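Before a colleague's protein record goes any further, I have to sign it off. I want your independent view on whether this chain really folds as the tokens say. The record follows directly below this note.
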Amino acid sequence: MAPANFIILYFSREGSTALVNMLSRQPGIRVPLMEQLDHYIFEKTDDITTPLQDMDAIYSTGIYDRIDTPMVQMRNLTVDDNFQSVGFKWRFWSDPVALSALFKKHNVTVFFLVRRNFLESVCSGYLQRFGPDLSPESDLTAHPQFKAAYLLGDDKQSFLKKIRQLRFPLNLNDFWFTADVKLRERNAHAHLAAVFTQNKIAIRPIYYEDFCDNPRNFLQDFMEEIHLPIPEKIDTYCDFIRVHNTPISRKLNGIWKVKWPTFSGFRFYRLKRQYRKKLAHMESLAAQQKQKNQT
């Protein structure tokens, strides 16, 4: 089967930068951009109303020639001129039906990068959005992994040590706001998965936890999904490291309020159950699609 191109649909705090950075180091894969087609950048730098025209050119040539926005995420991306597969990550914002036609034209597999663990997803999003204000005296930013990528030696170790020792208060109103955001994100992905499946576009949910636990196996499975030969040695080096070396939930004082059988605990359980249903729906769609392709 011919190698497929790919796109990784993602939201924040799901390891997308590290994953794409690592993918760019694998033979046969070309990653020509990072977040330049995300809405928050694209609308400032391009006069085209949708990214479809740029995507068409990228998948046709493997080149994105309008990278005029310096990004730390682009640091040390490997450029493979003998590429067989072109792909990148993207926060979705367009017409899924029109995208389906484009993906079909270029044989694109759509990967949905998600977290299984709803609690850690919410806690990580909470810290990203509210952490700097909860600890204004620290060096914490919304994306501390990018700062760590530029630090060296003792400066990096000192920064990591300081960040890893931080603890934060739990504001339930902000926590519920973040939980609702994370659930809406999964709802959006589940809807897109259904649309793409109806239009016969290959979809695959992939999990942050699997990537963190065993990046070598994760990359091997990814390359198998896009029909690339597996190299003898899979390069798992990444320019970006996990700044927090313990689960974020353990850094929040008062997290027991949503874990124990209290009113807040039952409320969180209901949200978690809805979240898991969306993941199960996406997995079911992908499994049915695979089964049809095998018959």
Q: What stands out?
A: Residues 5 and 90 are 14 Å apart (CA to CA).
